[in-house]
Amino acid sequence: MSQSVVEIQNEIIEEFSMLDGNMEMTIEYIMELGQQLPEMEESEKTEENIVKGCQSKVWLGATLEDDKIQFVADSNTAITKGLVSLLVRILSGRAPQEIVDSDLFFVDKVGLNRFIGTQRSNGLGAMMKQMKIYGLAFSTKVEN
Amino acid sequence: MSSTLVEYKIDIQKIREEFPILDQQVNGKQLVYLDNAATNQKPQRVVDALVYHYQNDNANIHRGIHTLAERSTTAFEETRKAIQGFINSNEAEEIIFTKGTSESINLVASSWGRKFLNAGDEVLISTMEHHSNIVPWQMICEEKGAILKIMPINEAGEIVIEEVKKLLSEKTKMVAFNHASNTLGTVNPVKQITKMAHAVGAKVLVDGAQSTSHLEVDVKDLNVDFFAFSAHKMYGPTGLGVLYGKRDILEKMPPYQGGGEMIKDVSFEGTTYNDIPYKFEAGTPDIANVIAFKKAIEFIEELGKDNIAAYEHELLIYATEKLAAIEEVKIVGTAKDKVSVISFTVEGVHHFDLGMWLDAKGIAVRTGHHCTQPLMEHFCIEGTARASFSVYNTHEEIDAFVKALKDIISKFK
């Protein structure tokens, strides 16, 4: 992994700034990102991999490979899938402790709170939490 | 659904002038507000009444001897009288102010239920109830060992009367159902079911949250024992609801909450309770909102329920026809008798994505399970998108909504 958590987030902020706050273009872009998310095997979409949001389903799987966590994810809604893809892009392939310590400032900067919603509308907030929980769980398996 | 259109007298431009909130851009687009079943907008006169009260008359009500207290008390009780007229109850004392429909139902379930429900008794509700007309009954049934039974619905989303007949017995003590479904729009045959329930000696509570701003409500004619509704779904302020109950039943019910206002005399040895409605209105009520609510009732009465119902029905038919013509759209709830609520799913588009997209185009609808999860389960769906219309909505807004919907669907192909 060549880019840091901060660098990728700055890249994302830059990408979204080009959309100039246009809501339709932003949604369209988020959906495009979701389409690029590597496919999650159907067999991985288990009940225990579900991160429950209020209006949509999110599946999140994590495996430890060479002391790095690889995330796979999917959602039954196109917009959430796009949002989820951003988190995977930032955090997948990193050491557990780095995930635990990460500050996901891009959410505020890009204005994604609008999509997270005040009522946990799509599980993005829950997903961020779940990724950190995986980080914490796997950190005990990694020799520091 | 009945496609018969009735003549109406609606000056839509004049009406919309009373709702300045509608004249705004959302995400760079003209706002089209179609989330009226959740809450509808407030005419300027309601907003003005709130401001006027706080600027001129504000004081705590009842027991105050000074002029402001007197003015506030008078205005507060004037609303109670206005509601009495609006739903045609026998007396103003049968009108109890609550926080909303949910609290009204909780009051009955808790107070009436605690006194009159016994182990083995049955409470009957329908599949299409809002959670607020399910959970309070579950709670009291659990506490008392009573049994909650469900009136089933058909594929159109109508209560199956034949099945209700089978479910009713001398064990049935309460039949609670909505006048109109918030998710499906179905208008339920209140008079018919009430008659059937009374025949076995059961009481009837009707959740009128979705009917009060659309349909004529005459509690004497309906002969229901309780009728619950919310001000904010009928052009009035949020945080305020009403419970109508027949005097003889209300008088037999114990207080719901203790505090000021609800007492006659208090000593440490014991307390005697006030008469209805005050027995059920513990604490300082929502004075300003109650006072402003009268203006919402006046707004509805000026337009006339017949006019409102006829106009909204036309909007419903217009929108239903346009939506039905879209191949990917499936309307959920096709009862013969409906208020202006259309729930629908779109093949290939999750309702959450749909709601976000519509919002990006300035169109406000509600998406999700609409607090009716058992109903979603009945139709084997996770949720729907719901467009609901009030008297200020227009045919042009429906056109904009349908155009946006088609555009969104094309993005998912």
What does this structure look like?
The complex is a heterodimer of chains A (144) and B (413). Chain A has helices spanning 5-17, 23-36, 78-91, 96-101, 106-110, 113-116, 124-139; strands spanning 50-52, 57-65, 68-75. Chain A is an alpha+beta fold and 144 residues long. Chain A has a single domain (5-139), classed as Sufe protein. Chain: A (Alpha-Beta Complex). In chain A, α1 runs antiparallel to α3 (78-91), α2 (23-36) packs across α3 and α3 (78-91) runs parallel beside α7 (124-139). The mean pLDDT of chain A is 87. Chain B is of the alpha/beta class. Chain B is built from 14 helices and 17 strands. In chain B, α4 (101-116) packs parallel to α5 (135-144). The longest helix of chain B has 21 residues, at 67-87.
Q: Could you give a short description of this structure?
A:
The complex is a heterodimer of chains A (144) and B (413). With 144 residues, chain A is of the alpha+beta class. In chain A, 50% of the residues lie in helices and 14% in strands.
